[in-house]
Structure formats: structure tokens, C-alpha cells
Design a protein that fits this description.
The chain is α/β, with parallel strands linked by helices and 319 residues long. It is built from 13 helices and ten strands. Helix 9 packs across helix 12.
Length: 319
């Protein structure tokens, strides 16, 4: 649901202001309900699909009914997720290829995802996952006395990446016991000696939770699924003006400029040195946070990308 929220739903008021009439329909499991909806597609100029990979038979039918189709996605849906024994899936790739050849336009979340589309369809543009900056103000004030807070915010499906980093954080805590880990999620990790704050995510408290971090982290594994990740965590960290340390995979490499608004880290020693450098230097945290905020203002906010999406909609509707 987070993906739909950030790539579709938050844009709707801006689309309507831009003169676009929008009707939202969530995927229905019942065959009769689906058929009724597909038979209405001819009344729309554009059928905009987010993430869903249809079976060839189902897509063949809705392709006959829809005038024009835009496909939008922000994950490597043509592969199995991280941790799978074999990342390659014939059925996923077949459905993806079948659809990409037959849609009018594709909006991909990052360069890796675009590269997966190009063999099938040249009409593709990168639209990064963005945030509404009116909901994110910059963290202010000096750090109070007490522990530095390293923060991670995300869904339970990505908690496995943080779990892989936990031994490194525990090892670092043994030598530098001046920080705590805060996890904002609906599931949590445990540690026998690293202090962990467990905070259940809520949309109302999301900004306050982000501002409670001093440093944001986004670990990933380097695999085909992770290369499709679009860096929303980092965009949110930067939205409130805090620096990030991340694995340089997928969109992370584009959002974080190593040593400028955050650090790249893959090996254990890189994670430890980067985090220690930021924990011990408040001015560096503030400086990197300001640069990160500017990066979001330039490329990863609704103000910028609403215009880009509206241009795509106008181009496709006129084709």
C-alpha cells in the first residue's frame, strides 16, 4: 500500500488541479467484478496500471477494452524477492514482457527498472518515488544530551535488510556505547545489549518519528530485486534534513552522493566508520542533512514530479 500511496494516491489532488479527471479502482479478485470493470475502460482516455502484472489472457482482454495504457512500477517485479534461491522467474518475466510490449508508455522508478523495460518498449521514462514536502519540515535545534539515535523506518517486508546489519551495530556498540537504534515499523528486531526503541508506524506521527532520528540508514543486499528499490527511506530522511548511510544499490546511488549528503557502505568497516564519523560530528550531520534536503527539493518531491507526470499523461492522451 505504501507504493500506491507514494506513486499514485498522493498525486490525485494535483492531477485534478491540473485538469485531469481521475477515477481510482483497486484490483478485484472476483472474476465477475473484474469483467464489469474492464468493460468500462473504453470511457477513459488512459488506463493507468500501478505494479500489477496480469496474466496474458487477462491483459489481452483489457488491452482490447482500453484506449491507452500507462504502466507504473517501483520494484523489480520480473524477479523473485531478495533471499530467493533463484531470483529468476519464468512466469514473472513472461507476464512482464507480454505487458511491456503492449502498453503505450511506462513510468519506471529508477534506471535499473528502465533498463528492464527497454528491450520490450522504448516509451519509458524514469519517475522517481517522491514525497510531498509540505508534510516534511527540517529538523531544528541542537542534539539534546543523551544517546545518538540511528533510525530506520520501513515496512516489515524490508526488515530483513536491517536484520543483516544488526550484528555490525551490536559490534559497534561494544566499542562506542553512545547510540541507540530506533525502528519504526509494524514488526521489530531484538538485541540482548544494543538499546532498541520500537515504535509502531503511523502516518500521523511519521514526520515526528523521522525528526527523532539523528542519522537514517538504508541497508540492502546487492541482488536483482534490491536493484529495483527506489530509495523512499532516504528521500524521507533527507526530507527532514538528516543524513543517510546506505548500501549503494539501485536508486540509493543516485540519491546519496557519497561524502556529500551521506555515505555509502557495504562492508562492515564501512558501516562502522561512516556511522561513527556522523555520530561524533554534529555539524557534519547538519551540513549533510541540509544538502540532502536540497536534493529532494530538486528531484524527489511532488512539486517537481507532478509536472513530469502530467506531461506524460498529456503526451499519451494525444497519441
Amino acid at each position: 500500500m505504501n507504493s500506491c500511496r507514494y506513486r499514485v494516491l498522493q498525486y490525485l489532488p494535483y492531477f485534478r488541479k491540473g485538469g485531469v479527471e481521475v477515477s481510482v479502482h483497486f484490483y478485484k479478485r472476483n472474476g465477475l467484478d473484474k469483467l464489469k470493470f474492464y468493460n468500462t475502460l473504453g470511457q477513459y482516455d488512459i488506463f493507468y496500471i500501478h505494479r500489477k502484472l496480469f496474466s496474458p489472457i487477462e491483459f489481452w482482454y483489457l488491452r482490447r477494452k482500453a484506449k491507452r495504457i500507462i504502466y507504473d512500477f517501483d520494484d523489480a517485479l520480473m524477479y523473485r524477492s531478495s533471499g530467493a534461491r533463484n531470483p529468476h522467474s519464468f512466469s514473472r518475466r513472461f507476464r512482464f514482457a507480454y505487458m511491456m510490449k503492449r502498453v503505450n508508455f511506462v513510468m519506471a522508478g529508477n534506471q535499473f527498472l528502465k533498463s528492464q523495460v527497454i528491450p520490450y518498449n522504448a516509451n519509458v521514462e524514469i519517475i522517481p518515488t517522491s514525497i510531498d514536502l509540505s508534510h516534511y519540515s527540517v529538523k531544528k535545534g541542537d542534539h539534546p544530551e543523551g544517546l545518538i539515535t540511528i533510525g530506520w523506518l520501513g515496512s516489515s517486508s524490508t526488515l530483513k535488510y536491517l536484520r543483516s546489519l544488526l550484528p555490525t551495530l551490536e559490534k559497534m556498540f561494544n566499542g562506542y556505547p553512545h547510540f541507540q537504534l530506533k525502528i519504526v515499523c509494524d514488526q521489530f528486531l531484538d538485541s540482548s545489549y544494543l538499546p532498541i526503541i520500537k515504535k509502531r508506524w503511523s502516518s500521523e506521527e511519521e514526520e515526528a518519528d523521522l525528526k527523532s532520528f539523528d542519522i537514517g540508514i538504508m541497508p540492502l543486499s546487492d541482488d536483482l530485486w534490491s536493484r529495483g528499490k527506489c530509495g523512499l527511506k532516504i528521500v524521507q530522511y533527507f526530507g527532514v534534513g538528516i543524513p543517510a548511510v546506505c548500501t549503494p544499490v539501485g536508486m540509493n546511488r543516485d540519491i546519496v552522493e557519497n561524502g556529500v549528503n551521506g555515505f555509502w557502505a557495504q562492508r562492515e568497516e564501512e558501516w562502522m566508520s561512516s556511522l561513527l564519523k556522523l555520530m561524533q560530528d554534529e555539524e557534519l550531520r547538519k551540513k549533510m542533512g541540509r544538502i540532502g534536503r536540497k536534493r529532494v527539493e530538486e528531484a524527489y518531491c511532488l512539486e517537481v514530479n507532478t509536472r513530469r507526470i502530467l506531461d506524460v499523461l498529456k503526451k499519451v492522451s494525444a497519441s
